[in-house]
Amino acid sequence: MTAGTVNIFLPVQLCDAGSLICKRLDDIIAVQDSVEQHGHITLSCKNRIFSIVVDCLLGLCLALAVHRHQGLPTGVSWASLEWTETVVQHLQDLVEWLMGAPAGLKLNAPLNSALGRFFLYHISLWETYVGILHPWVAALLRLWPGSLTLHLALASDLLALSTVHIYCFYGYACRLYQGWVGGLGALGRLFRGTKWNPLRERVDSHRYDVDQMFVGTLLFTILLFLFPTVAVYYAVFLALRLAVLAAQGILSRAVIVWDSFPLYTLAARTFGGNPVVGDINFDVLSSGRRFALFLQVIPGSVKLWPDHLGGPPWKEFVTDIIVGRIVYPL
C-alpha cells in the first residue's frame, strides 16, 4: 500500500480483523506486482493465492454449518452471556475474599476495603456492559466473514471487547502499584544518602537534614506496611490480564502460522512432483582417461513454520511486571 493508503487504513488496523483485511489487500497487490515484474506467477504468490482460496473455502464451510443450525448463533450468544455471568460471579467472590484475609495475609483494613469496594463497583458496571454487548455476538455469527482466519481475528477482537474492563482493572492496579514501587524506591535512596539526578539521569550522593530524614522515614514506613495490600490486588488482576493476553496471542499466532504455511508447495509436492528448486552436487569418483562423476540431486526444503512469531523479549517482559509497567498484547 502507498503512504496515503496506510494513513487512511491506520484506524482500521488497530483491530485484528481490520489488520487482516489490510494484509489481504497487500497480498493481492503483491501478486499483481510480481506478475508484472516476472511475467508469471511465482511460487510464493501461488502459496499466497492457494492459502487465501482454502481459507475462504473453510470460512464458507463454517458459515454453512452455522446457517444450517439456526439456533447455533443464539445458543453461542447465550452461552457466552452465561460464561460472562459466571466470570463476574467468580470475580465478585474473589474480590470479597481479598477484602478479608486472603491465604491468612493480614492486609490493611481501610485500604483493603476501599480498593475492594472500588473494584466491586466496576465489576457491576462490566456486567451491565456485557449484557448490552452480547446480542451482537449472535449477529456476528450469522454473518459470513469470508474466511476462517477472519473468524479467528473477529474472535480475538470480540474477546478484547468483552474483557475491556479486565484491562481497566489491571490498569488501575498497575498504576497504583507502579506509584507505590516508585515511592518506596525514592524513599529507599534517602536512607542510603543518595538521590536521583534527572538532568544527568543517574543517582548522586546527597546530604539530608534531620527533618527530611524524619519525614522520609514516616512516609517509607507507611508505604511499606500498605504495600502488601496493593501488591495482592496487582497480582490478581495481572494474572487475569495475562490470561486474556495469552488467549489473544494464541488466536493471532494461529493466523500468522496459517498465512506462512506453504499449502500450494505441499500439495504440489504430494500430488504433482516437487515445485521447489533444489541443488545439484557433483562428486569426482575417478580421474584420468575415464573421468567419472557422481551426480546427486538435493531436493529443496520447505519451511513449514515462520521464523518469527513476535512477542516481547522475556527479560523486558518480566522487568515490566516487577516494576509495574503496563503489559501490552504479546
TrEMBL record:
The keyword Glycosyltransferase applies. Its EC number is 2.4.1.198. The keyword Glycoprotein does not apply. The chain crosses the membrane at residues 119-141, 148-170, 213-236. Pfam families: Gpi1. InterPro entries: PigQ/GPI1 (IPR007720). Keywords: Glycosyltransferase, Membrane, Transferase, Transmembrane, Transmembrane helix. GO terms for biological process: GPI anchor biosynthetic process. One of its GO terms (molecular function) is phosphatidylinositol N-acetylglucosaminyltransferase activity. Coiled coil: none annotated. GO terms for cellular component: membrane. This is Phosphatidylinositol N-acetylglucosaminyltransferase subunit Q, putative. It comes from Ixodes scapularis (Black-legged tick).
